[in-house]
Amino acid sequence: MAAVLTRDIVKTFDEINAVNGISLRVPDGEFMVLLGPSGCGKTTLLRIICGLEQQTSGDLLIGGNIVNDIPPRARGIAMMFQSYGLYPHYTVRNNIAFPLRTQRMPSQDIQKKVGWAAQLLGIGHLLDRRPRQLSGGERQRVALARALVREPTALLLDEPLSNLDAKLRTSARQEIKNFQQRVGLTTIYVTHDQVEAMGMGDRIAVIDHGRVRQVGTPIEIYQDPADLFVATFVGAPPMNIVTCNGGGYLGFRPENFLPRDMIGDDGVTEFSFRVDRSEYLGSERIVYGVMDGFDSKQPITAKLPPAHVAEGSVRPGEWHRFAVKNSELRRFEASGNRSTRH
Ligand SMILES: Nc1ncnc2c1ncn2[C@@H]1O[C@H](COP(=O)(O)OP(=O)(O)O)[C@@H](O)[C@H]1O
Ligand SMILES: [Mg+2]
């Protein structure tokens, strides 16, 4: 196991800065999630870390050693791709053995290692099947076994769950996380899905346009977003942002709307909004509307426990007062950065 450190990594393709100066420290044993929209440079950064791509500038350190010029295989890092890349005509056994065969390991040792990896992932009974005879979740475990068979010091996962259906994704998420905790493997996990990031990461690095916007625990990222990008990228529905008189912004989450009987309490700020429509989702009701803004009408979303809003009590076109605790308001500068004034 080893810590991974990137120091001001830049990668330029033609004119595009795919990675724009990323410095990131992933301590030994940490599960770090890189979260960002499609095209923000996540895959490129992973490919640089495992050595499939050479950075334009900056240093990469693994276990404290600079590995800029070390070829991929010698870096001791495993990468699992979005598509898994299993060989369809090989059995599971031979898929897992493949990285060891290319290392010319004696076949007895290969069998031992394959057995070890298969046991680790609970796929011992699947060794003689071919990929097409496996479910999506089983394929994923085989790909993981193949990534781990060389006992890497760190594991890189690039959107590994994107090919699974929603239900399987939830269980696969827990499987990967349990496995990682059990083995204590330094892991960098790429996703554009903020729910995955929140649920899995020890820490999350939020990336946009090849830059890190914020690094923090899921709680820090959610409660204290560093800027408007992070505030609106993490959380569904996203944080409400309304412009203020002075040109800055005020943010509050859809779940921050207080019950009506708290309007007028100390330490709350009151607003009013017009209901446009609402959706009943069983555990909650999502209300979409517009707020009487400071200089214009601003769209807002409220997530209310159904108990707070009896059926038919929020009708389109009605104006309602609502309140948010001052401690849950977040202020942003016109530049988008978090305001230091409170
Ligand atoms: N080999 C390449 N040649 C040219 N542009 C590339 C190449 N790989 C990636 N890019 C560009 O770099 C940017 C980041 O891509 P990528 O790292 O794949 O993003 P992500 O994985 O976050 O979706 C994109 O604009 C993409 O088009
Ligand atoms: Mg990608």
Largest sheet: 6 strands, mixed
The largest beta-sheet arranges its strands as 6-7-8-3-9-10
CATH topology of the largest domain: Rossmann fold
Radius of gyration: 24 Å
EC number: 3.6.3.20
InterPro entries: AAA+_ATPase, ABC_transporter-like_ATP-bd, ABC_transporter-like_CS, ABC_transpr_MalK-like, ABC_transpr_MalK/UgpC-like, Mo/tungstate-bd_C_term_dom, P-loop_NTPase
Enzyme class: hydrolase
Membrane topology: Peripheral membrane protein
What does this entry look like structurally?
This protein has 342 residues and is an alpha+beta fold. It is 25% helix and 32% strand. It folds into two domains: 226 residues, 3-Layer(aba) Sandwich (Rossmann fold), CATH 3.40.50.300; 96 residues, OB fold (Dihydrolipoamide Acetyltransferase, E2P) (Beta Barrel), CATH 2.40.50.140. The chain has a six-stranded mixed β-sheet, sandwiched between helices. A hairpin with a 2-residue loop joins strand 1 and strand 2. Helix 2 packs parallel to helix 4 and helix 3 crosses helix 4. It is elongated, with a radius of gyration of 24 Å.
